Amino acid sequence: AMRKLQKYLLGKQDANGGWQSHYQNPHAGPSGVSAMVMYALVGSGVPVQHPKIQKAIKFLQGIEPESVYETGLRAHAWGQLPDVFLNEMKKDARLLENTAPDGVFHYKISAEPKSPTSGGKTPGHDHSNCQYGFLGLWEAAKRNVSVNPGFWKAVEAHFISAQLPDGGWNYRKGDERPSYMNMSLAGVTGLLIAQQELYRGSSKRSKRIGDSLDKGMKYLDKNYGAGNKWGLYGVYGMERVGLATGIKYFNKKDWFAHEAG
Question: Which residue, 80, 87, 95, 227, is the most exposed by fewest CB within 10 angstroms?
Fold first, then answer.
C-alpha cells in the first residue's frame, strides 16, 4: 500500500517540482501542499537522492512562504532532509518565531518580530494556526535548531488559560463555542511539546502543566469515537498526540488501526 501511494504521488508531480496544481487551498500558500507531499514521500522511505525529491527540494527553496500553515508544513519537510539543508529549516523556524513571540498564531507569516497585543487583550489568533506553528517549531527543535524558551512558556501559558472546564479547547480563547476534538488535540499537543522543551531536565513534573494535560487527555479519551467527525486534519492531530505520548488507545480503541482502516 505504501509503495502504491508513493508511486501515485511521484506520478502527480508538476513540471516545476511541486504538487500545487493538484490541490488548491488558500491557507497552504504557494508551497504548503508540495511540502506536505515531500514530507510524506521522504518520511515513508523515498530516498532524498531520488530525482523527483531533488526537484521538489529546489522548488521549495525557490519560494518564500506566506502563511503559518505553509511554513509549519515546510518545517516538517526540511526535518526529513540531511543536515546540508538545515539552513532552510532555520530560516522557516525564524519566520515562525517572529510571527508569534506571544505564543499564538494567525494566518499570515511575518518576517519581522511582532509585539504582543497591548492593553491586555487576547491577540488575534486561532488554535488551528497555533497548532501548525508550534508543530513546525517542534520539528526544528528535534533537529537541534534553537527555539527561544520564552516561546514555549507563552504556549504553555496560553493553552492553560484557554482550556475550558470540560478539559477541551475551542477555536480561540474567548470563543463562546464549546470544546471540540480537533482543537482539543491542538491544545494537548501544544502543552505536550511545551512540557518537553521547558522541563526536559527536570526530575519533577510541573504541577501546573501536568494538571492541565491530565484534564485534556481525559477529554480526548472520553470523546474519541463519540460521534465526532474530525476528518484527516483531526487524524493528523491525533497522530501527533500519539507521537508525543506513545499512547495507543483512546476510549479503549486502537486509534491508529481504526483511522488507518
Answer: 227
